[in-house]
Amino acid sequence: CGTRVNPKTGRHKKVYLCIACLKTGFREEMHIDHIDPCGSLRSADDVAPFLERLTCEDSSNYQLLHKACHQEKTNQGRK
Fold first, then answer.
1. Nearest to residue 31, comparing CAs of 44, 42, 45, 19?
2. Fewer CB within 10 Å, N side or C side of the chain?
3. Three-state SS at 39
4. Distance between CA 57 and CA 36 in Å, rounded?
5. φ/ψ (deg, to 5) at 51
6. Segment holding 75, helix H or strand E
């Protein structure tokens, strides 16, 4: 979504837009989120469907979120 000066290095660095809070962040502050959850890994039976869904999806099924926004979405989905 553009560039911003990294306060640690003083150099311009790419920033990305979080879809949840609409604020920008550097790559290391972001997570790639499945818009529709992949499922859980609570048992061994969950592994194969989880991996299939994780690796065989169209990129339109993903969104960028800050780590904290991703955790909040995950926690709300578990309720």
1. 19
2. C
3. coil
4. 11
5. -65, -40
6. helix 67-78
User: Are 21 and 28 a contacting pair, CB within 8 Å?
Assistant: no
Q: What is the pLDDT of residue 55?
A: 67
Report residue 26 as tokens. 């550097």
Strand partners, 5: 12
Nearest to 64 by CA among 33, 21, 25: 33
On whether the CB atoms of residues 33 and 20 are closer than 8 A, the answer is no
Specify the pLDDT at position 42: 81
The model's pLDDT over 10-40, given as tens digits with 9 standing for 90+, comes to 999 999 999 999 999 999 999 999 887 776 7
Provide the 10 A C-beta neighbour count for residue 75.
Answer: 9
Q: Which amino acid is at 77?
A: G
d(CA 69, CA 58): 22
Alpha-carbon distance of 67 to 65, in angstroms, equals: 6
